[in-house]
Amino acid sequence: MPGKRSRAPTSTPDQWVVLAPESAVDAPKKRGSGPVFTKLRNPKTGSAALYLFSSDCKQVYEVKAFDEDYHSWFIGQSVQRDGRLLFVTPLDPLFLVLPYFINANEKQGKFEPADQVIKDEEFPACASLLKCPRTLESLHHVTDEKEMGDRKFYKYNREKTLVWLKKKVEQTVKSLKSSGVSVGGGVQSSMLIRSKQVTEATEEDYIRYAHGLLSDYISSGLNAELFKFLKLPAISTNATLNEPPSKKRKLSDKPVEAEEDYTKFNSDSKEKKPTKMTAAQKSLSKVDKSGMKNISAFFMSKNKGTNKTP
Asked: Residue 49: which of 185, 216, 261 has the closest Cα?
C-alpha cells in the first residue's frame, strides 16, 4: 500500500521485509546469538554497506535493497512504513578483506598477522570477518604466507589475486551459461534477466559480462588490472567516431562538428570546389545550343506596350 516513509513518534520498532536463504536465518544453536546485520566497508567504493553474518558466523551475506518512494508493507495488523525489499545473498568474505591487504601492502609492504591487517576504526565489525573459517582458509589465494611458531603472517600478492579473480570469472561464466542468462551486447551487468538469446553470444561476451559482475566487488584499480589480465580487447563505441572527418561526412547528411571549419561544406559557402560532371552532363555540354532560349525566358512576364522584333 502506498504511503510516505516518514517516521511517526508512535511508530513500531524497526523491521524489514527480507528475501533470504534459510541458511541465513537458521535458529541459533546458542542462546542469545543469531543472525546479525552489520555495516562494513564496501570493497569497491569504501563507503558503508549493510551485510549479514549467519548465526554460526560461517557465512557472510550481502544485503541489497530494492527501494521505491512512497511504499509501505502490511505486516500482520500493522503497517511498516519502510517499504524497502531487502535481498540477502551469500558473499565470499575474501572480497571484503582484500582491500585491507592491498592497503597494508601499499603502506607497510611487509608480512603481518591477519588481525593486524583487518582492522578499521570506522568499521570495527570487520574483525568479525576473521571468525568466519572461510576467510582464513582462503587467504592463500590473495597473499603470500609465512608461519612463525603458531602464528601466520600474510602479505598481499598481486599475481595470486589476479589468478583467483580469473577463476571467479570462469566460475561465473559457467553459471551464466547453465542459467541461460542473456549476455548480448546491449545487456547491462546490473540486469540479470533470464530470456531466450536473440543472437548467439560468444565466449568473449560471457567473459565481459562476468567481469562486469565482479567489478562490483573490487576497486577500480584492481578492476582495470583484471581487465588486462583477461586480455579483453577494448570496446569501440562507434566505428564512425574513429573515422577521419572526410569519411564521417560521407556517412552522414548532417554538418560536421563545429571544431572544424564546417562553412566550407555548407550550401551557402562563398567558395565551392568544382564537382565532377556525370556522363549525361558531358553529353549535354557537347550539344550546339545556338538559337536555344534559356528555360527562364518561358517564365518571364511580357509587356503589352512592346512590339515583337523580327
From this structure: 216
Q: Which three cell numbers stand for residue 196?
A: 531466450
| Residue that the C-alpha cell 568499521 belongs to | 123
- Residue (of 52, 64, 23) closest to 129 by Cα position: 52
Domains of the chain: 1-91 (2.20.25.530), 92-156 (no CATH), 159-228 (no CATH)
Rounded mean pLDDT, 188-211: 69
Counting every residue written for the chain, the total comes to 310
H or E element that contains 155: strand 151-156
Q: How far is residue 307's CA from residue 310's CA, in Å, rounded to a whole number?
A: 10
Q: Tell me, rounded to whole angstroms, the distance of Cα 109 from its chain centroid.
A: 31
pLDDT tens figures, 28-43 = 666 656 788 899 999 9
Phi, psi values for residue 151, rounded to 5°: -120, 150
Please give the model's pTM, rounded to 2 decimal places.
0.66
The CA-atom distances, in angstroms, between 208 and each of 75, 223, 288 are: 42, 12, 68
Is pLDDT above 60 for 224?
yes
Q: How many Cβ atoms from other residues are within 10 Å of residue 144's Cβ?
A: 14
pLDDT classification of 248: cutoffs 50, 70, 90: very low
Grade residue 180 by pLDDT with cuts at 50, 70 and 90: confident
Per the model's pLDDT, the better-predicted residue between 174 and 190 turns out to be: 174
Q: Fill in the DSSP letter of residue 231.
A: T
Torsion of CA 212, 216, 217, 222, to 10 degrees: 60
Coil vs helix vs strand at 16: coil
